[in-house]
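Run: sequence + iron/sulfur cluster -> complex structure.
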Amino acid sequence: MIITKQKPLEETMDMTEPYSKIFVVGCGKCATVCQTGGEEEVAAMVEELKDKISDFAVVEEPCDLRLTRRDLKAHKETIAGSDAVLVMNCGAGVQTIADYTGRIVLPALDTMFIGSTERIGRFYDRCKACGECILDETGGICPITRCAKSILNGPCGGQVEGKCEVGEYKNDCAWILIWKKLKEQERLDLFAEFRPPRDHGKKALLTEIIF
Ligand code: SF4
Ligand code: SF4
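>> structure
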């Protein structure tokens, strides 16, 4: 799931200040679960912006252009007559709304990471969408995400008793976790394997996938 948090209200108010007619779009999926852009949060935002609101809608899954098209179809004229669209979605949703509406878009949320959910309000950063997954080699623990330096051949010299020097030894060292997991699975040969540096140029070119 894409984890988002709301921008401070003051920042959103500043962003919307130049516009007098604003359409608000919420998200029925991830932002609903994060309680950052679902029905309730959209209603609260509409209440905050009061007279400026032209209308609002919660799209089932705004990062999917097909669902955005379907759910905003009835609002097309209102959106065209609005000065801006305040989007309470992740960055992918904001850009889909921008493409579909052609209007000025204002992001009300900050997109944090691809995360796993323990419960509402407790999310864990688990994937940076690196495009070359190596979880098979690392016991299902992602070093790109969970190592503070994203190193591929750890641990570095900064771990003490399994804790990472970054963040004052509060967090577990990802590479110690990986070592423990691989040991438990009797696959420590993978730990010793050298992983060459990533070709970030390759990832930079991977901005679309077409089947
Ligand atoms: S290695 Fe980590 S960042 Fe890359 S795809 Fe796998 S989980 Fe995501
Ligand atoms: S101590 Fe471990 S988690 Fe921290 S930067 Fe070094 S290898 Fe990564």
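>> summary
The domain at 2-112 is CATH 3.40.50 (Rossmann fold). The radius of gyration is 21 Å.
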